[in-house]
Amino acid sequence: MKLEELLKRIPVLEMIGNQNADVSEIVFDSRIVVPDSLYVAIKGTVSDGHSFIDPSIEKGAKVIICEVLPEDLKDNVTYIKVKDASKTLGQLASNFYGNPSEKLNLIGVTGTNGKTSVATLLFDIFKILGFQSLLISTVEYRIGDEIIPSTHTTPDVIRINQMLAKAVELGYEYTFMEVSSHGIHQNRTEGLHFKIAGFTNITHDHLDYHKTFEEYLKTKKRFFDELNSESIAITNIDDKNGNVMLQNTKAKKKTYALKTMADFHGKMLETDFNGMLLNFNGKEFWTTLSGKFNVYNLLLAYAITVEAGFHEEDILKAMSQLKTVKGRFETLKSEGGIFFVIDYAHTPDALENILDSINEIRTKNERLITVFGCGGDRDHAKRPEMGKIASRKSTLAIITSDNPRTENPATIIQEIEAGVEPQYFSKYTSIPDRREAIKMAIKFAEPKDIILIAGKGHENYQEIDGIKHHFDDKETVIELAKLMSK
Ligand SMILES: CC(=O)N[C@H]1[C@@H](OP(=O)(O)OP(=O)(O)OC[C@H]2O[C@@H](n3ccc(=O)[nH]c3=O)[C@H](O)[C@@H]2O)O[C@H](CO)[C@@H](O)[C@@H]1O[C@H](C)C(=O)N[C@@H](C)C(=O)N[C@H](CCC(=O)O)C(=O)O
Ligand SMILES: Nc1ncnc2c1ncn2[C@@H]1O[C@H](COP(=O)(O)OP(=O)(O)OP(=O)(O)O)[C@@H](O)[C@H]1O
Ligand SMILES: N[C@H](CCC[C@H](N)C(=O)O)C(=O)O
Ligand SMILES: [Mg+2]
């Protein structure tokens, strides 16, 4: 593509060299530069892309976009100085791939919890309604029936535009994507036109990256601040920061809630492990999904689909056919009548939510056994918190390993145990091997008891010392529950 075309709508501070170069690719990593490409130098969290300008030129880059011009300028290279190279990358990527986000309905979901659930539910609803679409999520990327392994919840802006362009080429009208706070902060959504933006909730998370809750909140809000007047923003006003998201947006504002009046109002009428009877805006329907948080997720998916122009009756009919999302309150039952819940809850807040949801459903005679751990090389503060919550809210908590990474599993477990209050000392035990821990839970369980296996959800590995060993909670349950022939 000609440089002139590529630079449309992009503010340039200074340009040195051939203004009409032909660009073969846009890259922001010197390691994957190809001849005649354009290299964008970005300041990262570890290194500064400006120090890889010369290696990029050696590999054939013909155009350099940077915030600071190098002192030693090479012949036959075009240097372009911009104010913000990371944001510029977003605009370039849209231009290079033909602005695909403007050619379909791009729907983004942000929030601390529920993004994968809502985005996947939407993909499934639209499939039932007769539309193939694109899904960009933590678990996987789906282009119609093709599944591509996911590297990031919100991948880089080139990857996003490539997938969007493919979707446009295939004639798809919709794309559902998760918008993570890292993604917003690192401008991975820059230049994209979101038709509808949904907000799930915000709780303490990722403070290792964002430092303070205020910064984290501000980052999420930026997603809504940057919408245009043709977009629609839909927010959860049961969350105390739900309205904050809409404060400065130009988008049309819509709300949803269970506890208060809203444009989209939901109610849970009945619930058990087989599903829930719900009422959305006066209309009742049955879903096979369980868990209170899924009422919120379904309600947001419903609101988005209504705002996309579909009939309420058709949507509810489609929603009653939905299957659970992989690793999100996924239920299984053993022949012996034990219920298993496999869930990705890996934060104190999520663990508390899922335990509350289960406790709301189970009767006094049904015991709750929780198998969980905490990831290594991650936030240490959550460990005692999760120990406290799990032992308080379960009949028995079995503390085990969840991706120890480079840490000693025993040390992580000790940090979790440190949060257990003395009156609950008899309500927990520790088994470092996750398979053995699940085995122990099954041994302990009686018919009708519930075993919650939390923290890994869809993950199919246990990461130890940089090596990912195959491990899948669901697979393990199916294998062990059968072995026990309960
Ligand atoms: C902390 C973080 O988010 N890092 C992301 C960031 O990398 P970085 O800032 O560390 O990059 P860097 O190494 O400092 O390099 C700076 C620049 O120099 C370039 N470079 C670097 C080396 C070189 O030899 N040549 C070169 O050109 C790099 O390509 C980059 O453009 O930019 C990269 C390119 O987009 C990302 O792949 C990378 O994600 C890392 C792998 C990651 O683990 N990110 C996680 C935390 C993340 O983003 N998670 C969220 C979801 C979180 C959640 O909700 O659970 C997600 O959306 O997935
Ligand atoms: N609406 C919700 N409110 C509170 N908790 C939720 C909600 N939806 C899901 N959860 C809990 O959070 C866990 C993660 O859900 P999900 O994967 O949908 O969220 P996410 O926002 O995509 O998370 P991540 O940032 O890790 O990708 C679930 O397994 C469940 O325990
Ligand atoms: N995106 C999160 C997921 C955590 C999942 C849990 N299984 C763990 O490994 O801690 C992280 O990488 O911190
Ligand atoms: Mg996700």
From TrEMBL:
Position of sequence motif Meso-diaminopimelate recognition motif: 402-405
Modification after translation: Carboxylation is probably crucial for Mg(2+) binding and, consequently, for the gamma-phosphate positioning of ATP.
Enzyme class: ligase
Keywords in alphabetical order: ATP-binding, Cell cycle, Cell division, Cell shape, Cell wall biogenesis/degradation, Cytoplasm, Ligase, Magnesium, Nucleotide-binding, Peptidoglycan synthesis
Pathway(s) served: Cell wall biogenesis; peptidoglycan biosynthesis
GO terms assigned for molecular function: UDP-N-acetylmuramoylalanyl-D-glutamate-2,6-diaminopimelate ligase activity
Domain called Mur ligase C-terminal: residue spans: 327-457
The EC number(s) this enzyme carries: 6.3.2.13
Residues engaged in binding meso-2,6-diaminopimelate: R378, D402, N403, P404, R405, G455, E459
Co-factor(s): Mg(2+)
Modified-residue entries (N6-carboxylysine), positions: K220
Role description: Catalyzes the addition of meso-diaminopimelic acid to the nucleotide precursor UDP-N-acetylmuramoyl-L-alanyl-D-glutamate (UMAG) in the biosynthesis of bacterial cell-wall peptidoglycan.
Protein name, per record: UDP-N-acetylmuramoyl-L-alanyl-D-glutamate--2,6-diaminopimelate ligase
Species whose genome carries this gene: Kaistella gelatinilytica
Biological classification of the source: Bacteria, Pseudomonadati, Bacteroidota, Flavobacteriia, Flavobacteriales
